[in-house]
Amino acid sequence: MAIKLNPPSADGKTVFRIISSVAVLLVLVFVGCATTQRIDAGHVGVRVKLAGSERGVQDAPVVTGYVFFNPLTEQIIEFPTSVQNVVWTQAAHEGRQIDESITFSSSEGVNVNADIGLSFHIEPTLVPRLYGRFRQNNLNVLADGYVRNTVREAFNDVASKLPVQDVYGSGKSKMLSDVTAKCREVLDKDGFVIDQLTINGALRLPQNVADAINRAMEATQNAIQSENKVRQVKAEADQAITQAHGAAEAARQKAQGDADALLIRARSEARANEIIRLSTSPAILQYRALEHWDGKLPTFNGAGQLPMLTFDAAKLGVGLDENTRQKRLKDLLAEDKAESGSGSSPTPPSPAAPAPK
């Protein structure tokens, strides 16, 4: 007996189409998710071909955004490019709970222990080279391995040329700068960009070495204090000498002033005496003598003239003729006026002899 199949109804066709569409959509979503990867901001991707003639790490990095790839033949490796901070310390509460501090040696072979901090980031254009060399995209693993070994080797290389006193004291900053430069020289070519390398806290030395350095530093401080004291004493001595010189100079200036004043006064008195001498004529001298005569004649007298009454007035002159005397007197008065700056001094009049009674 033959079985007759009825053709599907219109409703059945509609359901079939819906199911088919959903299935296709699910397949597309699955394929899209499997062949698409998003590179977040602050990251960069590396395309790795797993098959074909170009298999291996591709030179061009994958930038931020959605990336399409064939999951059967390709792989996208993501790297962070933001700044990474690591600390290698002895303390258990910072970093990992194990002693990760770095130990290096000075030129004398003294072991120095330090807590080191490092900030770095990855150069995006060198990410393919970095992954191609280490096959590792976990930067913490790379930092605690390759980078830490490089930093430790740089410290040993630089510090081995320095005495421990420089490492522990004034040379620490230069040592750190040289170590940073050496680390950059090694790590830059692999894409590691060092932003900052620091020594966290104080360096740790063997106790006997630390005590010796402290004693040396104390001796240096004492020497500096002694030098400062010597400078202070010298400054005070120089100040005392300067004051003594100043006092001596002041005394010399005062003595010179007194001498100049005495000389000026003597010259003034001499000029005044000369003016008086030139201003006094023989007639005036005779008149002054008569003024002081009491009018009594001496009881005994010789055959000559009476004293104070009759005398040779010419013998009382100044030894100059009248014109010369007047010119000399005028010159002295002019000099006196110029030096004193006062008004003109009038020529003293020559009083006339009174008429005899």
From TrEMBL:
Keywords: Coiled coil, Membrane, Transmembrane, Transmembrane helix. This is Band 7 domain-containing protein. InterPro entries: Band_7 (IPR001107), Band_7/SPFH_dom_sf (IPR036013), Prohibitin (IPR000163). The lineage of its organism: Bacteria, Pseudomonadati, Myxococcota, Myxococcia, Myxococcales. Gene3D superfamilies: Band 7 domain. SUPFAM superfamilies: Band 7/SPFH domain. Residues 38-236 form the Band domain. Residues 216-243 form a coiled coil. It is a single-pass membrane protein. Residues 346-357 have a biased composition (Pro residues). The chain crosses the membrane at residues 15-34. It comes from the Bacteria. It holds the Pfam family Band_7. It is found in: Membrane. Residues 333-357 are annotated as: Disordered.
